[in-house]
């Protein structure tokens, strides 16, 4: 959760999130420019208008040498598209987000998250991902998908995700489609099979023109699939299909197609250059936005901590933390607070219901949780399929600062989240100061080093070897090669 949320009332709701994503290029309103045409003045103006809002929604921009390096690669590959005739025609941003994501929008604006960059293993992979997204823009796929789907305004539904099975199709059911950046991702339209193949073909074409190994496209797709499978396993989810698969259909066959497109082509990967340039890049959550450690979320800036119930997993976004499970979903966020918890809770219910669904609890109960003044209200509604309980549980942190959970459960099962409500507590200044980010540490394997011995240094409490293998694109049988560079995830000093 980013600090800016304390100044805004966000529309909050619950959704079943399906893992990390590599989002498609965003849908910009109303473009009718033919495929392959250079960037128009109107597109450039649109991109400039939305740029800062995109950056803010994705946790801000990373600056420094790592960002400069990513910008140079992004501009180099984008230049191959013909959208612009100079590098200055493109704006490439490295986003401070812990979600695997990349996208490009009309106007020459290209984005990639530091998390996705950290998952890559060479410069050609970075160029391939960005080239694929630029390919969608060059082909004007977003405008064509937008026309097919009528209207899908980006910033009006930023963060749109699939509705939970708990929710229905009426006004309440639509809450699952109104999450505001629970996970930082663009509201995108699913691309058709033919559009994906065209973007892949363009991406491979750009790689070849720029002198990169076109096989890199398939390699990064495999890494993403492996990461999503690992994340699903660690979260206890049965469905390992990433959100990426909903916007980029049929990833398994696309890996094969990408390899066929690159058949016979050669080029550079710049593996060592890439690894040396991203050495030290933050990996995972930024402490300034809070961190998830297992089932516990800790925010060292706001100085609080809570734990999700057994069997639930969390996703951290720039404006909220989502809590997801088979028996219910929830969100932790904040809103404008004047010191009155009753009115605060009623305003949250009103925001959740929106214009079409008026939600108001019959009563609000006061309590104290770990010395924090707290209050809660419950509303039972029918979503068209079943009755569900919507609960708002809020805490007064003083100094006109409050936080609240919004949860949705089947009727009569609101108590599923009681342990989470009870776990909210302040942390001390020393506890907050001890929270440090994880970073990528690039090292050179020595003779005698093994995956098992090196992966034991990964800064996690579980699945160290699996995480190390996925991070470095290693199969279950691959071993370290002496003299070759690899990535570790370590704690910052």
Automatic annotation (TrEMBL):
Taken from the UniProt entry, a GO cellular component term is: membrane
Q: Which co-factors does it depend on?
A: Zn(2+)
Sorted alphabetically, which Pfam families does this protein's record hold? LysM, Peptidase_M48
Q: Does the keyword Iron apply?
A: no
From which residue to which does the signal peptide run?
A: 1-26
Q: Tell me one GO molecular function of this protein.
A: metalloendopeptidase activity
Q: Which UniProt keywords apply?
A: Hydrolase, Metal-binding, Metalloprotease, Protease, Signal, Zinc
Which InterPro entries does this chain map to? LysM, Mito/Outer_Membr_Metalloprot, Peptidase_M48
Domain named LysM: residues: 441-488
Output the GO biological process annotations, alphabetical, semicolon-separated: proteolysis involved in protein catabolic process
The identity of this protein, by name, is: M48 family metalloprotease
Q: Which organism is it from?
A: Altericroceibacterium indicum
């Amino acid at each position: 959760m980013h600090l800016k949320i304390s100044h805004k009332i966000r529309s909050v709701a619950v959704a079943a999130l399906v893992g990390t994503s590599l989002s498609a290029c965003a849908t910009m309103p109303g473009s009718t420019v033919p495929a392959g045409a250079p960037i128009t003045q109107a597109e450039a103006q649109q991109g400039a208008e939305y740029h800062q809002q995109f950056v803010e929604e994705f946790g801000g921009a990373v600056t420094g040498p790592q960002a400069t390096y990513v910008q140079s690669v992004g501009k180099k590959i984008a230049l191959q598209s013909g959208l612009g005739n100079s590098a200055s025609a493109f704006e490439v941003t490295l986003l401070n987000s812990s979600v695997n994501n990349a996208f490009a929008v009309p106007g020459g604006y290209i984005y990639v998250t530091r998390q996705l960059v950290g998952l890559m293993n060479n410069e050609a992979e970075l160029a391939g991902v960005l080239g694929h997204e630029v390919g969608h823009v060059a082909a004007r796929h977003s405008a064509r998908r937008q026309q097919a789907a009528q209207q899908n305004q980006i910033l009006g539904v930023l963060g749109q995700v699939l509705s939970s099975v708990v929710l229905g199709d009426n006004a309440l059911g639509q809450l699952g489609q109104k999450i505001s950046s629970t996970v930082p991702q663009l509201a995108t339209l699913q691309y058709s099979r033919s559009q994906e193949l065209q973007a892949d073909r363009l991406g491979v074409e750009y790689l070849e023109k720029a002198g990169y190994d076109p096989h890199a496209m398939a390699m990064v797709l495999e890494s993403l699939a492996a990461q999503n499978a690992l994340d699903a396993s660690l979260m206890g989810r049965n469905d390992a299909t990433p959100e990426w698969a909903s916007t980029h259909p049929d990833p398994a066959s696309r890996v094969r197609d990408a390899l066929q497109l690159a058949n016979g082509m050669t080029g550079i990967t710049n593996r060592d250059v890439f690894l040396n340039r991203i050495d030290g890049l933050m990996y995972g959550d930024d402490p300034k936005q809070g961190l998830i450690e297992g089932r516990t979320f800790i925010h060292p800036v706001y100085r609080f901590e809570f734990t999700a119930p057994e069997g639930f997993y969390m996703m951290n976004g720039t404006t909220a933390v989502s809590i997801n499970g088979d028996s219910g979903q929830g969100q932790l966020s904040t809103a404008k607070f004047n010191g009155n918890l009753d009115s605060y809770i009623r305003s949250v219910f009103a925001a959740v219901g929106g214009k079409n669904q008026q939600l108001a609890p019959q009563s609000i109960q006061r309590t104290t949780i770990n010395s924090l003044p707290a209050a809660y209200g419950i509303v039972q509604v029918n979503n068209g399929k079943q009755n569900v309980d919507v609960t708002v549980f809020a805490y007064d942190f003083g100094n006109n600062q409050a936080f609240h959970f919004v949860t949705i459960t089947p009727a009569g099962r609101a108590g599923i989240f009681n342990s989470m409500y009870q776990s909210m507590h302040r942390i001390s200044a020393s506890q907050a100061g001890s929270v440090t980010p994880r970073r990528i540490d690039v090292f050179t394997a020595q003779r005698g080093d093994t995956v098992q011995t090196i992966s034991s240094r990964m800064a996690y409490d579980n699945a160290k070897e699996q995480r190390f293998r996925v991070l470095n694109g290693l199969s279950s049988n691959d071993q370290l090669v002496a003299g070759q560079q690899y990535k570790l995830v370590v704690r910052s000093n």
